[in-house]
Every structure is written in C-alpha cells, then in structure tokens.
C-alpha cells in the first residue's frame, strides 16, 4: 500500500466519468499530512480562479476547472505546450475529513486546499488511571 493511500485512502488521480474532460489533462498535485489535517496543493498554471470549482459529495472531494488562455490579436502562436482543456480530479476520503472546515486558497496558479481530519482520526492522549 502506498504512503498516500495509507494517509488519504483511495486518493485517485483520475477524471470523473460524469464530467466532460480530456483524458490527457491531469494537473500535478501534492498531498502532505500533519496531526490535524491534510493539505492538497494542485498546480494549475493558466487557470483563473473563476474557472475552478471544488465540491464534496458522498465522500468524494472533486476539483474541476478549465485552462483558457486567449492570445492577444497581434500575436501569432508558433508553439504551445498547453491547451485550453477542462480537467477534473477526484479524491475519495470516505468521511475522514471534516467537510465543514475545508478551506481553499488560490494564488499564482497554485490551489491550496486544507482538509481537516475528522475528530475520530486526530491523535489524542489517553490518560492512564
């Protein structure tokens, strides 16, 4: 079992079958953990904040977006490595996240989502009598 799957069960880097997305578009992301939360950082260069959406439904955190860059009229594109395509990432968390406390920020093409662990998963000290 991979470390990511042991920390964040069933972490999937795949497009959802329910969304119109291009199979080749898969944003890079990192997931790190501490005692109280997981932090997901998705690297989304060229994506505008208004073109992003984050949902949580039935134990699945979904991130959807679209990269749409419009070149100025006076430019002639010679080569481009990125396309204007939709993407979707989904992460099954099976109720291990306190969804009411999820926090997301987007700056400089990096989406940072803080996913607080459910109380039952947080480490606690047990007193010995």
Can you put this structure into words, describing what you see?
By secondary structure, the protein is mainly beta. Helix content is 4%, strand content 41%. It has 1 helix and 8 strands. The protein has one helix at 3-7; strands at 11-12, 28-33, 37-43, 47-57, 60-67, 86-92, 103-107, 110-116. The strands form 2 sheets. Strands 1-6-5-4 form a 4-stranded antiparallel β-sheet, with no helix packed on it. A hairpin with a 3-residue loop joins strand 2 (28-33) and strand 3. The model is unreliable at 12-23 (pLDDT under 50).
Features:
129 residues, 4-stranded antiparallel sheet, 1 helix
DSSP strand count:
8
Could you tell me the mean pLDDT? 81
Overall spatial form = elongated
Low-confidence stretches: 12-23
Number of helices: 1
Amino-to-carboxy terminus distance: 37 Å
Strand residues, percent: 35-45%
The profile of the biggest β sheet is: 4 strands, antiparallel
Helix content: under 10%
Going by helix content, strand content and strand pairing, the class is mainly beta
Radius of gyration: 18 Å
Oligomeric state of this protein: single chain
* Element order: H for helix, E for strand: HEEEEEEEE
Strand order of the largest sheet: 1-6-5-4
């Amino acid at each position: 079992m991979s470390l990511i799957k042991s920390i964040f069960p069933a972490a999937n880097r795949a497009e959802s079958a329910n969304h119109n997305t291009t199979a080749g578009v898969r944003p890079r992301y990192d997931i790190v953990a501490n005692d109280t939360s997981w932090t997901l950082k998705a690297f989304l260069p060229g994506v505008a904040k208004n073109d992003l959406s984050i949902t949580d439904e039935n134990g699945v955190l979904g991130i959807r977006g679209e990269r749409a860059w419009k070149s100025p009229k006076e430019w002639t594109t010679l080569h481009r490595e990125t396309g204007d395509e939709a993407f979707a990432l989904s992460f099954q968390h099976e109720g291990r996240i306190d969804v009411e406390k999820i926090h997301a920020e987007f700056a400089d093409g990096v989406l940072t989502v803080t996913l607080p662990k459910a109380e039952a998963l947080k480490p606690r000290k047990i007193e010995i009598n």
